[in-house]
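Figure 6 in text form: structure in, sequence out.
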């Protein structure tokens, strides 16, 4: 599908109006067809955009303003409700167009399975790709109750595609024993419970490499992000997640794309989760886009 076929509702604050002149493309993947607990993340991208109007355009952390980065909000991909495979194919094609235009793809989920087709597209362009994954959950299952297309499987699929030694997970505090055992056996890096300090140790090892960053909002403790499908106690603070984004920004890795997934606004009437997500995206735009 073409960019002009995406659903254009509200746009993220200060987004550029011209795709051709943009350096990055923000897009929504409104899919929650395979969730195992609470649906609703398909409404995440739209609400993140809507609450972004309350953001300051200036980042006191990075001393940059959004007007300094030309990024285009392409809207939401009109995914066919309930059709997981077709939805994943459409996402891969959409991101492929962004990469073909040599622009930075920044996605909003949607359930975490949407990251899988993005990785497929990224790997075609960057065969030496590495992944930084921040999440409460391992997402290393081969299937969930017999279904291989599940939000519990995207990191396993990615690891099998690019090599498990190229996947680095942080903040993990939930998963099946077999998932942790598999990661250990194949040499995949998992930092349990924490993000910032282990991230500081890993980043120098990835210097100069193309890296895709995927952040599941549930890496945050439910006190900081209750609006998600599978809340899990014992997470990090929003301050630590912001600091981790900034640590990546000042590192020598080459961030080539990213996503933020699993925001489900219906479970957070205070809109704390959506507002936090919009701020995180602002920092990702300002911190990572110039690192193409």
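Output sequence:
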């Amino acid at each position: 599908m073409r960019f002009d076929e995406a659903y254009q509702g509200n746009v993220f604050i200060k987004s550029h109006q011209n795709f051709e002149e943009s350096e990055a493309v923000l897009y929504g993947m409104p899919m929650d067809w395979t969730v195992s607990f609470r649906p609703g993340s398909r409404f995440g991208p739209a609400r993140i955009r809507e609450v972004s109007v309350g953001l300051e355009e200036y980042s006191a952390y990075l001393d940059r303003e959004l007007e300094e980065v030309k990024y285009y909000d392409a809207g939401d991909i009109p995914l066919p409700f309930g059709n997981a495979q077709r939805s994943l194919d459409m996402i891969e094609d959409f991101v492929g167009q962004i990469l073909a235009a040599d622009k930075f793809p920044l996605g909003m989920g949607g359930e975490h399975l949407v990251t899988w087709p993005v990785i497929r597209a990224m790997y075609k362009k960057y065969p030496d790709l590495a992944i930084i994954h921040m999440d409460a959950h391992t997402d290393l299952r081969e299937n969930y109750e017999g279904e291989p297309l599940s939000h519990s499987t995207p990191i396993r699929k990615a690891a099998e595609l690019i090599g498990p030694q190229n996947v680095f997970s942080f903040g993990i505090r939930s998963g099946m024993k077999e998932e942790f055992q598999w990661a250990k056996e194949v040499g995949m890096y998992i930092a349990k419970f924490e993000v910032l300090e282990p991230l500081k140790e890993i980043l120098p090892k990835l210097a100069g490499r193309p890296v895709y960053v995927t952040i599941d909002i549930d890496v945050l403790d439910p006190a900081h992000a209750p609006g998600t499908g599978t809340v899990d106690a014992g997470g990090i603070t929003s301050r630590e997640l912001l600091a981790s984004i900034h640590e990546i920004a000042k590192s020598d890795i080459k961030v080539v794309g990213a996503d933020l997934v699993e925001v489900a606004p219906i479970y957070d009437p205070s809109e704390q989760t959506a507002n936090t997500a919009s701020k995180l995206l602002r920092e990702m735009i300002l911190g990572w886009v110039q690192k193409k």
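Caption detail: The first strand starts at residue 24 and ends at 29.
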